[in-house]
Amino acid sequence: MTATTTVPSRDRSRGRADAAVWAPQVLLALFFAIAGAMPKLVAHPSAVESFGAIGYGSWFMYLIGALELAGALGLVVPRPAGVAAVAFIGLMAGAWTVQVVRSTASTARTRRRRSSSRP
Questions:
Q1: What is the largest distance, in Å, between two alpha-carbon atoms of the chain?
Q2: pLDDT at site 18
Q3: What is the pLDDT of residues 63-89, one digit of tens each?
Q4: CA 19, 79, 36 angle in degrees (round to 5)?
Q5: What is the DSSP string of 4-17?
Q6: How many CB atoms lie within 10 A of CB 72?
């Protein structure tokens, strides 16, 4: 006689739920690795220009690229995935803060120039 095992429907639905969580995680990891980390790690001219404009230079660009690549790898490994996700929240909050401060400073300089050039 052969024993047959049946998979309860709860196990199948859990498998679908796991896939529903892992698919976006893998896509996000690919995005951070390819579109985020690689331009910084290969010193693409646009990344060099961006980091030069904020005044941090190439060392900071390589650091952010390495952090993004490590986070992307962490997202696809089950055990550190949660920590990697939380670290990305911090990294993106920092990026947002730099963009807002830089944008605000740029807007203030533009307004000063316009007001000083008026008769």
A1: 99
A2: 78
A3: 999 999 999 999 999 899 999 999 999
A4: 75
A5: -----HHHHHHHHH
A6: 21
